[in-house]
Amino acid sequence: MKRKILKNVEWSILVCTILLVAIGIVALTSATKNADYDELKKQIMWVSISVPIMFIVIFIDYELMAKISPILYGIILILLVAVLFTSAINGATSWFNIGPFSLQPAELAKVVIVLFMAWLITKVQARGKDEVNRILKLALILFAFAVPVLLIIKQPDYGTALAFVVALIFILFSAGIRKRYIITSIILVVVLVPVLYLFVLPEHAKTRIDVFLNPNLDPRGAGYNIIQSKLAIGSGQLVGMGLFKGNQTQLGFLYPKTTDFIFALIGEEMGFIVAAIIIFLYVVLITKAVYVAKTAKDDLGSYIAIGIAGIFFFHMLENIGMTMGLLPITGIPLPFVSYGGSSLLSNFIMIGLLLNISGRRQKAIFVE
Questions:
Q1: Closest Cα to residue 80, out of 147, 159, 166, 168?
Q2: Residue 312 · residue 202 · CB < 8 Å
Q3: At what angle do helices 299-323 and 224-236 cross, to 10 degrees?
Q4: DSSP of 174-214, one letter per residue?
Q5: How many CB atoms are located within 10 Å of the residue 247 CB?
Q6: Local structure of 4: helix, strand or coil
Q7: What is the largest CA-CA distance in the chain?
Q8: Which three-class secondary structure state does DSSP give residue 330?
Q9: Which residues pair with 97 in a beta bridge?
Q10: Sorting pLDDT into bands at 50, 70 and 90, what band is 364?
């Protein structure tokens, strides 16, 4: 059984993941040079924890994981409520501090919500594919989705909340949602964006948008990070300034260089070639995730895989886009490259799910 699963696995996904982790470790070595390599050591520890968990996930039938997802959904809601009562770190109540480590429930929620949404939609479609387009059933799906997303927004963590939204859009599109709902949603977004900007978003979020449109509005304040990031990427040119030799990186102008702006560090010290390789690896990973969704043995596997593809797509696009000044800063990490234990663990679990689904593409392997 295990051999047959491993034979069918889309190994190119794992290869891309390993290469991204390796580049991230090299970048973190440079980024933490002046901090006794503390975050590097933690990242290596989290890799050593996450990889075995990924392999465990590969061999647990994803149908079983989907069946227990309602329980996991309830647990994650409790954690998302509880984290709101913790002390704020950088203005957000997103982490539980456990000794020297921190746990971010919103990161683990990515796995749970994708599993739960996929399970719920397949239950809704039990009587037919078009059931997802019935108003009441679609409203049920959106309500179940909105509860954790609103709790994440409350932290506040708008970037992670948007990653959930993109994942759901990918899943619903794959599930066959009608075009009229898509068009209505686009119209609502166009109408609501100005309203949200004027009356809902807090001042710091408005400032980020204003600075995104014109970083020079506040070059020493809110626009500082974008300006330094663009300088770092531009100064790297083709082959980079060399590890430990980046001006913005090593002189402390680039912050936070281990998480949000690690791509800028890579651009400065490793150059355009390595930065382009990273983008290529993400494109391959996401393309293969979509392929796994198309070739999955059932709708459940397809929805899980496409939801994961949506999360990786948003993280890649938003993180790289914000470091280049093409998108507003949202604090989204670069998967497998940025420092972050919770993020790394959840990302490896999602890779495990993709390998799990790809390994079970042939129904014959379930025959006794």
A1: 147
A2: no
A3: 90
A4: HHT--HHHHHHHHHHHHHHHHHIIIIIS-HHHHHHHHHHH-
A5: 15
A6: helix
A7: 67
A8: coil
A9: 102
A10: very low
The answer to whether 156 and 92 are in contact (CB under 8 A) is yes
Residue with tokens 């290596």: 44
Q: How far is CA 85 from CA 77, 81, 92, 95, 265, in A?
A: 14, 8, 11, 10, 34
Q: Rounded to whole angstroms, how far apart are CA atoms 366 and 94?
A: 41
What torsion, rounded to 10 degrees, do the Cα atoms 217, 223, 228, 230 define?
-80
Residue labelled with tokens 């509005």: 217
φ, ψ at 89 (rounded to 5°): -120, 120
User: Which token pair is 289?
Assistant: 């995730």
284-336 pLDDT per residue, tens: 999 999 999 999 999 999 999 999 999 999 999 999 999 998 888 888 999 99
| Total Cβ atoms within 10 A of residue 242 | 13
Distance in angstroms (rounded) separating the CA atoms of residues 161 and 112: 14
CB count, 10 Å around CB of 148? Answer: 24
Rg of the chain (C-alpha set): 21
DSSP letter assigned to residue 92? B
Q: Where does residue 98 fall: left (phi above 0), alpha (psi -120 to 50 degrees), or beta otherwise?
A: beta
Return the closest-CA partner of residue 76 out of 28, 26, 113.
113
